[in-house]
Design brief:
By secondary structure, this protein is mainly alpha-helical. 63% of the residues lie in helices and 0% in strands.
Length: 144
């Protein structure tokens, strides 16, 4: 085991490192901190039912309606093509009709529904982000 060499005298005192300098970090006193407002302007506009608040709500309703009409349009195109399959000659329409009705329609319906729900949730999240204070807003949902 090695022992550190301890020197004595005036030279040893100059070589010893001085203790680290302490720094004091201060902030704004607790009572003087600015508290966030109880209501953000958009939220108060909506709760007070002002013209601007009605505009916010109308914009949300319009975006939800647009998503719903888009899903309905795709569904109408899907279901609207089924009679064309039924109109095929009898010999050619047997398997394609059953394949379309039994295998193709349901996954496509599920995809349309999934798209609609995702779009509606995104519209609501955008609206919530507009209305809520950023500190209060829920964390975005991450789907894996």
């Amino acid at each position: 085991m090695r022992r550190p060499c301890v020197e004595s005298g005036p030279m040893a005192e100059q070589q010893q490192p001085s203790p680290p300098r302490r720094e004091v970090v201060t902030g704004v006193p607790r009572g003087a901190r600015r508290r966030p407002p109880a209501h953000t302007p958009a939220r108060s506009e909506i709760s007070e039912q002002t013209t601007l608040g009605a505009t916010y709500v109308r914009a949300l309703m319009r975006s939800q309606l647009r998503a719903g009409l888009g899903a309905l349009g795709v569904l109408t195109l899907l279901v609207g093509t089924l009679p064309l399959l039924f109109a095929l000659p009898r010999s050619a329409s047997g398997p394609p009709v059953w394949v379309a009705l039994g295998l193709v329609v349901y996954p496509v319906l599920w995809l349309i529904a999934r798209w609609y729900v995702t779009r509606a949730e995104r519209n609501e999240a955008d609206f919530t982000g507009l209305v809520m204070d950023p500190a209060e807003a829920p964390a975005p949902r991450r789907d894996a």
